[in-house]
Specification:
The protein is mostly helical. 63% of the residues lie in helices and 0% in strands. The chain has seven helices and no strands. The protein starts with a helix and ends in a 7-residue tail after the last helix.
Length: 216
């Protein structure tokens, strides 16, 4: 992004400056959102499914693996019965081995979830900062353009706006929305600048490029 900002200076210095600060903020926010990424990764591992986004993950094979695991567990319940003893036998001879067999692929997929969550939220937060500066310039001291709590006039207002805008990027169920228009999970266009709607600036597209399974 810093290289993009450098090249953009020839055509639009204001946009170049915005890209530069978004690049720096995206890098910093990846560390800020590390704990959220770890929680999402553990949740993905526990649920055995993607949380933020299901595209380009190792779950394609894991879905078939999960179907076979579910079949084995149901067969075990029928063979050993539903009683207390049958439940213990089913856990020991079916569920435990199945969990051990499926764990490596689930762990790899959880790693993708960690990377995606950290990058997605970091990129979205940087984009949100730019939006707050555009729509609510009074929130910030304009000594510089680097948006941090220390550089905010009204910290409570900044927190309120950042949380409000972040909810536009993530559904209540934890699914990511895209700034690219025309999809069921697109962010409302009225809240985005023309540059935000480009694929290269989309937080979800950026997160997908940063995962272990990226096709790029």
């Amino acid at each position: 992004m810093l290289l993009r900002a450098r090249n953009m200076r020839r055509h639009d210095k204001a946009r170049a400056k915005e890209i530069m600060w978004e690049a720096i903020e995206t890098y910093i926010y990846q560390y800020v959102y590390t704990f959220d990424a770890i929680k999402a990764s553990l949740r993905s591992l526990r649920l055995n499914r993607p949380v933020l986004d299901s595209a380009q993950m190792k779950y394609d094979s894991n879905i078939k693996q999960g179907q076979l695991a579910a079949w084995a567990e149901h067969m075990g319940a029928k063979i050993f019965g539903q009683g207390k003893v049958g439940s213990i036998l089913n856990t020991g001879f079916v569920k435990a081995p199945v969990a051990a067999i499926t764990f490596p692929l689930r762990a790899l997929a959880a790693g993708d979830e960690l990377m995606k969550t950290a990058v997605f939220k970091a990129r979205a937060a940087a984009m949100i900062n730019s939006r707050i500066m555009r729509e609510h310039p009074e929130v910030f001291e304009r000594m510089d353009n680097f948006t941090t709590f220390a550089g905010a006039k009204d910290i409570e207002k900044y927190k309120e706006l950042s949380k409000k805008y972040m909810r536009e990027f993530i559904t209540p169920e934890g699914r990511a929305r895209t700034t690219i228009q025309g999809f069921d999970n697109s962010v409302a266009s009225k809240s985005l600048s023309p540059a935000d709607k480009l694929t290269i600036n989309d937080p979800l597209a950026t997160a997908r490029r940063m995962t272990f399974t990226s096709p790029c």
